[in-house]
Fold each of these.
Amino acid sequence: MSYKVSLLPGDGIGPEVAGAMKKCVDATGVKIDWEECIVGEHAVKKFGTPLPESVLESVRKNKIAIKGPIATPVGTGFRSVNVQLRQALDLYACVRPCKYYEGTKCKFPEVDLMIFRENTEDLYAGIEFDINTKEAKDLITTINGMQAKQIRPDSAISIKPISIFNSRRIVKYAFDYAVKHGRKKVTAVHKANIMKFSDGLFLRTAREVAAEYAGKIEFQDVIVDNMCMQLVQKPELYDVLVLPNLYGDIVSDLCAGLVGGLGIAPGANIGENMALFEPVHGSAPKYAGKNMVNPTATILSGVLMLRHIKEDQAADRLENAVRAVIKEGKDVTYDLKPNRNDPTAVGTQEMADAICRKLK
Ligand code: NAD
């Protein structure tokens, strides 16, 4: 049997890490018919848009996709293609495992966290009004007329919607995962002490869902700033984390740092009947085209994809091969060497080749 998968190589280091992932997944023997889609900066040059409709059509048709990172201009320019993909395909659950692999620069070998980030709303919704626009002025006038706290006229505004529907389905997803995978505890992360309505609603909904799992899975909630401190001091106390979109984005990079860096942190974006896999890291433009960066995060995203299509044996073999290469510490990229300037560090493609050689 062969699977059709949309492959979005992306920008910057994307094509290099996506190519390395493709090589490793193919080497497992699972037959994949890759449908390559141009997105990001390459698509702007070719089609005048970073996300052509044909890309969405490909993912909707194949229902499985894997992508490299896609760059987003900071402060100006087009909106994030990554966010557009998640919203347009309703990939509501962002799943980011964070675990220790022997050989990485990890100070916490006990870490084995699962992060579930809501993927469609919150400040990430992209509902914004720029300074001095008619919309921003009207909004400021309306809001200033509704309550005592006054928004300054020289403000830009970003809206933070949090709904019961989206909070419920991400929290439920986290609990169902915990039950299915023998996890013990779910921690909801929020700032409901300050954002009493939006984060308050997320927390209330999380408590309601938790009650449905009482006796099976333990539940606690932690305020996001405290959570950051707890994670860098005693991450072993945590098991499954569930967060609204923005906190999920920040905390998952923090957790990637705990287990050895962005180079090894994979991710998945899951919807009702579709899934898109991608590394947590971005397009790292300064390394683009240098065959230098670590392909592990994208290869492990490939492992998540293999598990999603129920090719568990191939997934285990590929994960074990990655584990073996990192543990050996010889054919690894600069970020996995004790010293970043180590001349024995290998390139992206050479590390992928070493992983293929370890596949049994
Ligand atoms: P980044 O993740 O691209 O890079 C930050 C740093 O992390 C790099 O300079 C590098 O030191 C390290 N790093 C990242 N990937 C690595 C790898 N595979 N191996 C070794 N080291 C690695 O973050 P950034 O510089 O903030 O963002 C660059 C661009 O990526 C921006 O345009 C941003 O919008 C985009 N981005 C995209 C995604 C996505 O596609 N999902 C995610 C995050 C950022």
Note: The first strand starts at residue 2 and ends at 8.
Amino acid sequence: MIFLDAAATTPVRREVLEAMWPYLSGEFGNPSSHHSLGETAAAALAGARAAAAEALGCRPGEIIFTSGGTEADNLAVKGIALARRAADPRLDRVAISAVEHPAVQESALYLERVHGFAVDVIPVDSFGQVTVEALAAVLRPGTALVSVMYANNEVGTVQPVARLAALAHEHGIPFHTDAVQAAGWLPLDVGALGVDALSISGHKLGAPKGNGALFLRGRTRLEPLVHGGGQERGRRSGTENVAGAVALATALTLARTPGLGAGEGPAVRIAALRDDFIRSVLAGVPGAVLTGHPGERLPSVASFCFPGTSGESVLLELERQGVVCSSGSACAAGSDEPSPVLLAMGIDAEVAQTAVRFSFDATITAAELQEAASAVRNAVGSVRALGPTG
Ligand code: PLP
């Protein structure tokens, strides 16, 4: 099997499993306990926090461990907006891009539905990018928070986060970015990005599912969403997932290979393989359309529409041929609705239903991608021969 669905999830890396194992077994203490087992767990948690902070270029106290990317996004969007409005009732709007993951989108809609906020949606261009002008056009005196993802999970388009954050700051508005897909591929230095909050998820990086983190800049106000024993400095209660935090920190540290995402190293090698793959698919499949930005995209994502097919039939046919991929996002898979991300990019609904996303990790080889490209040719050919519902 050729696994081309790494944007959905990745296997746990051996180094990560080895690093977390002691805290699942012999060193199983609760970090809040005052005996030696507890102290060992607390030290491991502190070490993980320091390592995660180092990877993001922030202070350890600015890391909040969560149960994953979804929780980190919820905490950022709801927590910052609610805290700001509590301090100033006029701050009753949030601005999010049209291509956010449901974790951000649904959090904004919750604020609208339950707390009376207004949601301003920032449109994207045909590559799925938010321009500085598009953001400027939606900012209002009442905007409490801007949230624009770093890289899109369906088409891989990378956003100009530093420029967007700078614009939000000119208006005194905090900026959150969902970096779940960017982590491991793009530089994550929160100082250089200029963001106030940034979400990451372990399972996209070779750590287990169910752990993630939110970076929250120093004095940014936050209304906690999970109340209880006051862990994570009162920002996220609940006994800490020590092994999960160690796993996340280890995966983040491993992903910080020198040069990764900075013009050298694996990101560049993988980007070159991605470009060869894109060329082969476009050359081999008549009518195939690349979706997302041609250059400013994750090294690990190639996404297409294959007009005259249905994405789901192509996926089934590809799986029969030993290639596993997805229709765009794990949450949209199996649904008949065209992807809101593709619609926001101006792709018409019928074509959007033919979307297929290929995403890989740094272990992918040129030979595997060549094989996958010929499987794509065959799969699209047979689906078209059978008709779109075949
Ligand atoms: N944000 C983006 C961009 C994602 O791709 C995902 C996962 O697919 C998430 C958030 C949610 O992360 P998690 O699965 O850790 O809840």
Note: The longest strand covers residues 93-97.
